[in-house]
Amino acid sequence: xxxxxxxxxxxxxxxxxxxxxxxxxxxxxxxxxxxxxxxxxxxxxxxxxxxxxxxxxxxxxxxxxxxxxxxxxxxxxxxxxxxxxxxxxxxxxxxxxxxxxxxxxxxxxxxxxxxxxxxxxxxxxxxxxxxxxxxxxxxxxxxxxxxxxxxxxxxxxxxxxxxxxxxxxxxxxxxxxxxxxxxxxxxxxxxxxxxxxxxxxxxxxxxxxxxxxxxxxxxxxxxxxxxxxxxxxxxxxxxxxxxxxxxxxxxxxxxxxxxxxxx
Length: 263
What we know:
The chain is about 50% helix and about 10% strand. By secondary structure, the protein is an alpha/beta fold. It has a single domain, classed as Phenylalanine Hydroxylase (Orthogonal Bundle). It has a 4-stranded mixed sheet with strand order 4-3-6-5. Helix 4 (about 90-95) links the parallel strand 1 and strand 2 (about 100-105).
């Protein structure tokens, strides 16, 4: 996701390899150790199924090419390292081409529980498991194609559907809330907050409502949308989404449920 970044990006060599330090690998290992059991318990089946397919290393940061070697034969997607801060045009273009942009740095100790920027743990551990599911992979590609077709005036509208599903979506399985979004599965604090806290509002999945819902990138979300039947998400197509965006634009945004500050 494009947003503000307080970390320095890692630069891959000519073969795409990024040299991480022992300390950085240790941070990955600590995050993996914390999140693996939590996601097994609290994440949606589609996420956990994808996580197992990708065979991620526990004790070191995987290279993007390693994940691609598992992912590409399953859904045709690849993972490419980028600076954390990329523009919407590049973001949508990469999604439309089945290329997932992965921020190359990993968080420091101060951001262990929650990080505002997307780091490599968020990108790989959080995002790529859903890209190992053909249905979610197709939906992500659709978001990219629609974003490209709308141009700059439409970027902020279509990204909200990505935000409240792929980034912070919840599903309902056996009557229990489960985490779908990468912002939940990669965050030690927001995973439990999103599922267990009585503070946030949980709304039923509705595309037009989602498109009208403002969000902030730097706080635990005050609103989560719950997809009771995943087919409601997978049935979204380009024609219907473009029509829903027009309708959402006509109705306008909901009032924010959070403090409005410059982020």
